[in-house]
Amino acid sequence: MINGKFKVFSLGIQHVLAMYAGAIIVPLIVGGALGLTAEQLTYLVSIDIFMCGLATLLQVWKNKFFGIGLPVVLGCTFTAVGPMIAIGTEYGISSIYGAILASGLFVILISTVFGKLAKFFPPVVTGSVVTIIGITLIPVAMNNMAGGQGSPDFGSISNIGLAFGVLLFIILLYRFFTGFIRSISILIGLLAGTAAAAFMGKVDIQPVYEASWFQVGKPFYFGTPTFEIAPILTMILVAIVSMVESTGVYYALGDLTKQKITKEDLAKGYRAEGVAYLLGGIFNAFPYTAYSQNVGLISLSGVKSKNVIYTAAGMLMILGLVPKIAAFTTIIPEAVLGGAMVAMFGMVIAYGIKMLSQVEFASQENLLIIACSVGMGLGVTAVPDMFANLPESVKILTNNGIVAGSLTAILLNILFNIVRKEKKSGIVALNGKHAS
Length: 436
Known about the structure:
Blueprint (H helix, E strand, L loop, with lengths): L1 H32 L4 H23 L13 E3 L4 H11 L1 H18 L3 H4 L5 H23 L11 H20 L2 H5 L1 H15 L6 H5 L18 H28 L6 H20 L5 E3 L1 H10 L4 H15 L2 H8 L3 H23 L7 H19 L9 H7 L2 H35 L1
Antiparallel strand pairs: 1-2
């Protein structure tokens, strides 16, 4: 009995470690980019870890209204990092949470019928959107590698050396290890980089001393949320991409656990994510999605019990209640984060390209969709003042590279792949009628 409980506990720790780096680095990147204080950053990391656990519980606990009931782990989505930084920089942090709340409500409302809308978001659209998001994140990584924008030692040899050292260390872990060590290579890289930075005198542990031992999340910690159209549209696009990603995770887990996934199951899964979005918006955390790295861990371990995931969720919630633990993550130097970011954000681009690999590249129309959407997304990001003279109502759709590129992909997909197919099917039906 004790051995059984120990096994469940140890497997739960593995799941926590597999997703922990992804869970903490999102608030660190977003909070750092928005210039939050050490205290605010500690809160952001703490509440994010807690909400990862709660969001996971919502998804694993299958009931009449929500929860897919599979051994799935939820964490904050990387897809939201670039959009949240862009929203926070232009509209303020309160707009981020207004947009998250609105997108959560959107996910809940659309959960039942999302399957019918899937034709508007084939791999050519979702792959383009994820690729655009990854590309827009790379400048954030490069700034951090140099020591963080505005830092007095920006671009110093010590910062560059530290950043590339972390990146090389992560690459070597990937090269020479497999399985669990590889799955937590980012976390190991961050720990090793921080240790090296401490020897170089670049780590200030004061925030750890100042952080409290226990803290419960506060609703609207960063103030009353505000609702702006452009941020809401941006986060809805992020939510749609996350739903598409989660669908793949659900089917993969269904295959692993030999469970048939019905439309009702998918709707409950989406609804659980929508509820997690709403709670994230209320407690100033993040949007959540199913983590694929934990699916890989289930596949490797062969253990598919939901009890393991319940244990992992409980651990995350306990960790989230202890700000002193979260404070340890806030002392990671910018250069160390930057080295890890290049690998992670590069993986976002690579994942987008992987999604695009499902596209029929023999079709010139698909090539044009990718070319125009990625080109528009990158162009608006690189030259944000390009549309400065347009009316405010139009600038809502053009100010943000992710929105501009995503809408370009959606509209061109409708034009080339939906309208054209409907016309073709109409012509075929008409010819068949005349033939009869």
